[in-house]
């Protein structure tokens, strides 16, 4: 038994020595190659390095539309819903308008809807740079009290959204998409139009199409960096059902559900139903087009944030 163990140990030693002997030249070659590249890089003229960098930057912007077109060709070609954020990667400028009827005779007009510029800068990535909405308060306005100041007209918070497309296939290859979002809200708003704290909103989104019919859905939750006793952790689940007819017509029906964890509305929920119609994409020039849509959002649960709203959306895709 002892002799067999010694023999086995001897074989392992010889095998280890053989592997080291074979790998050592490869390691030496890689080391010398790395050293040579470092020396060559340090000896490269500064002007050549700058020229290479400038050329790379020029190529990045010159190929922007070719790259974004290829990226978008790998996903379904549905239209973006009115209120549900699409899992698709879009490149456009968007402006939304909301006329909300609130409880107690209060009305709120939202100019912009915190939408803005949507870009596809890299593979599978979209960045949305929101433009702060202007909020106007009408109807029966509550006056200031010792505990709470009256809400005045002003700017809302700045928002950003980053999308990363995880899976996708166009209409010829499966007609589906799965995307992860990360939303950010910065408390830059004025007075009662601001949340008062930054918000972080991770979201998962998906969509599936069957011929002219498609479903797009998102599920996300917002976490504030403070003020949880007031803002809570709202969990939002939005779904859009669309049907494509006559080339430019996209009738749709959306459900917008929110459940409030923590905060002033702990345990409460609200559900809005939003029938609407989107028209587009109408060609304008070359890559530039136009898409418009409108809908009516109505609450079907008790104690909603607002009773109903007229929604208008305009987009300039490019």
Give an account of the 3D structure.
The chain has 318 residues and is of the alpha+beta class. It folds into two domains: 2-43; 74-317, Porin (Beta Barrel). Helices cover 23% and strands 46% of the residues. The chain contains four helices and 16 strands. It has helices at residues 2-43, 46-62, 64-73, 228-231; strands at residues 92-101, 106-112, 116-122, 125-130, 134-139, 154-155, 158-169, 176-186, 199-210, 213-221, 223-224, 233-243, 249-261, 269-285, 288-299, 308-317. A twelve-stranded antiparallel β-barrel has the order 1-3-4-7-8-9-10-12-13-14-15-16. Strand 13 (249-261) and strand 14 (269-285) form a beta hairpin. The chain is globular. 24% of the residues are buried. Residues 1-9 and 11-23 have low confidence and may be disordered.
Topology, please?
Elements: H1 2-43, H2 46-62, H3 64-73, E1 92-101, E2 106-112, E3 116-122, E4 125-130, E5 134-139, E6 154-155, E7 158-169, E8 176-186, E9 199-210, E10 213-221, E11 223-224, H4 228-231, E12 233-243, E13 249-261, E14 269-285, E15 288-299, E16 308-317
Antiparallel strand pairs: 1-2, 1-3, 1-16, 2-5, 3-4, 4-7, 5-6, 7-8, 8-9, 9-10, 9-11, 10-12, 12-13, 13-14, 14-15, 15-16
